[in-house]
C-alpha cells in the first residue's frame, strides 16, 4: 500500500510540473507581427514619442533611415531613402502616411531622380499636372490643413537653387507641380492654402534677385501674389 501511495504522489508531481511548464511556455509565445495591433499613447503635445515612431517603423518594415517630416492629431508623414538609383545615381525617396486611428500606413509617392528637367516650364499663374511617377524629388512632406486627401512635397537637387513643390493626390494618381522655386513654407491659417516662395531676376537688367510670395489653391491655380521687387524704392 505504501508503495502504491508513493507512485500516486510521484504521478501528481509530474502532472503539476507538466502543467506549470506548459503555462510558462504559453507566456513566451508572441502574437504574429503581421496581425498585431499597435497601441500608442500620445505625448502631452499630442505627438508620438520617438519610441512610438520606432515601433511604427519596425512594425511596417520601413527602412532604418525613416524619419518624420510632419505630424498632426490624425496622421504622420514619414520619409525614407531606399538607396541610389541605378540610372541617375541619386537617392530614391519615398513618402509614407501613417493613419493613427486605423493603425495603417500608405505609400504616398516614390520620387526617382531625373537627369533632364528641361521640360519643366510651368506658367506663373498655375501649376502643371503630372503623374505620380514623374515626381523626381522629395526632400520633405507636409500635411495640408482642411484637406487630408493631398500632401505637399518639397524637393531639391541643390538647396542653393530650385526647391520644387508638388501637391500630391495619391488616390487620384496625380501631382501638381507648382510654379514656385523656393518651396512651400506653410499654409494660410483659415483656408489651408499653400504659401510658396520664389526668387526672380529683375526684368530691367538690374543685378540681383527679388522674392515673391505666392498662394495657390488645391488645383494649383494662383490665388494671390506679393512681389518684393520694388520694396526698397517704396521705402524712399
Describe this structure in words.
The chain has three helices and 13 strands; from the N terminus they run H-H-E-E-E-E-E-E-E-E-E-E-E-E-E-H. By secondary structure, it is an alpha+beta fold. The protein has one domain. The strands form three sheets. Strands 5-9-8-7-6 form a five-stranded antiparallel beta sheet, with no helix packed on it. A four-stranded antiparallel beta sheet has the order 1-2-3-4, with no helix packed on it. Strands 10-11-12-13 form a four-stranded antiparallel beta sheet, with no helix packed on it. The chain is globular. The N terminus is likely disordered.
- Strand portion: 25-35%
Whole-number count of domains? 1
Shape: globular
Number of strands: 13
In round numbers, the mean pLDDT is 80
Whole-angstrom Rg:
28 Å
Brief rundown of the structure:
This protein has helices spanning 2-27, 50-59, 231-235, and strands at 67-71, 75-84, 91-99, 104-111, 128-131, 140-143, 151-155, 164-169, 174-177, 184-187, 194-201, 209-216, 222-227. It has 236 residues and is α+β, with helices and mostly antiparallel strands.
Give the helices and strands, then pairings:
Layout: H1 2-27, H2 50-59, E1 67-71, E2 75-84, E3 91-99, E4 104-111, E5 128-131, E6 140-143, E7 151-155, E8 164-169, E9 174-177, E10 184-187, E11 194-201, E12 209-216, E13 222-227, H3 231-235
Amino acid at each position: 500500500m505504501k508503495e502504491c501511495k508513493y507512485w500516486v504522489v510521484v504521478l501528481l508531481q509530474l502532472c503539476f510540473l507538466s502543467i506549470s511548464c506548459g503555462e510558462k511556455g504559453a507566456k513566451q509565445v508572441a502574437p504574429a507581427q503581421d496581425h498585431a495591433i499597435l497601441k500608442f499613447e500620445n505625448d502631452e503635445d499630442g505627438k508620438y514619442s520617438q519610441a512610438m515612431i520606432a515601433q511604427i517603423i519596425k512594425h511596417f518594415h520601413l527602412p532604418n533611415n525613416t524619419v518624420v517630416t510632419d505630424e498632426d492629431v490624425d496622421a504622420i508623414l514619414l520619409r525614407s531613402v531606399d538607396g541610389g538609383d541605378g540610372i541617375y545615381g541619386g537617392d530614391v525617396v519615398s513618402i509614407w502616411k501613417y493613419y493613427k486611428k486605423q493603425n495603417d500606413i500608405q505609400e504616398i509617392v516614390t520620387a526617382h531622380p531625373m537627369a533632364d528637367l528641361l521640360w519643366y516650364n510651368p506658367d506663373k499663374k498655375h501649376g502643371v499636372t503630372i503623374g505620380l511617377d514623374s515626381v523626381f524629388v522629395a526632400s520633405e512632406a507636409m500635411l495640408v490643413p482642411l484637406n487630408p486627401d493631398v500632401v505637399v512635397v518639397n524637393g531639391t537637387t541643390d538647396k542653393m537653387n530650385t526647391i520644387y513643390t508638388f501637391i500630391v493626390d495619391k488616390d487620384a494618381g496625380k501631382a501638381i507641380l507648382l510654379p514656385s522655386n523656393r518651396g512651400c513654407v506653410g499654409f494660410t491659417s483659415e483656408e489651408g492654402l499653400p504659401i510658396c516662395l520664389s526668387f526672380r531676376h529683375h526684368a530691367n537688367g538690374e543685378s540681383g534677385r527679388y522674392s515673391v510670395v505666392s498662394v495657390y489653391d488645391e488645383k494649383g491655380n494662383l490665388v494671390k501674389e506679393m512681389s518684393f521687387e520694388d520694396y526698397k524704392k517704396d521705402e524712399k
